[in-house]
Amino acid sequence: MGDNDTRIELTGLRGVPESALSQALVATLPRNQAPAPWECRCSALLWLGRGGRAAASVLPPALAGSPALVTLGAFVRYTDTPVGAYDEVLGIVGSRTGLRPWGNVAFMSVDSESSLVGGRTNWAMPKTLARFDGELADGNLITGSSTAEPSWTVSATPRIKGPALPLKVKGSARQQFSDGRIGDSLLTFNGRIRPALVTVGVSSSGPLPTWLRPGLHLGAFVEDATFTLGEPRF
């Protein structure tokens, strides 16, 4: 499987401390079996937070100095992907270059080793492993927790406030790869969403709560969606 020195595509990414991989875990991870692009089907719970200095501080060095305009947190339950079904929790910093918006995935954790490897290798998304409890449903608590140090937990409970609305949107994920290059990957989303108020809990022995903030947030419940995440362009 290789060791920590030969898996630079996994270990050479810049992320928040909560995204760190141990040498023991890296030594057991499989090779990437699912190159980009990925076509996926999912349901999800999203919430918005304010940006600012703390959020800007978690951007990778090649994006330092970019404004942190907003943060986006989410739980995602994937039912169909190139690596099978899995759950995910994430934190994104939203920024722009000129008039062009983009998002940087600063924190992402999944319960699939194949997804971890694919996310880091294909798109430089600093995925780590988590365990999940609960369901994505109105009034239900869902929780994601670390499986190793540093210890962290993210939880969310939605209160759905309106009818389902169709949404088609495109966005750009901008990530710094292990060789220092910046890659932009196009995400194309097509789904049905419902507005929601989301009560979020975030605790960590690291800095995660300073920028992915707990509290009551405006958000959306994604009933069902398909999306494609393309190959990065450098």
Automatic annotation (TrEMBL):
Pfam families (UniProt xref): ADC
InterPro entries: Acetoacetate_decarboxylase (IPR010451), ADC_dom_sf (IPR023375)
Gene Ontology molecular-function annotations: lyase activity
Coiled coil: none
Protein name: Acetoacetate decarboxylase family protein
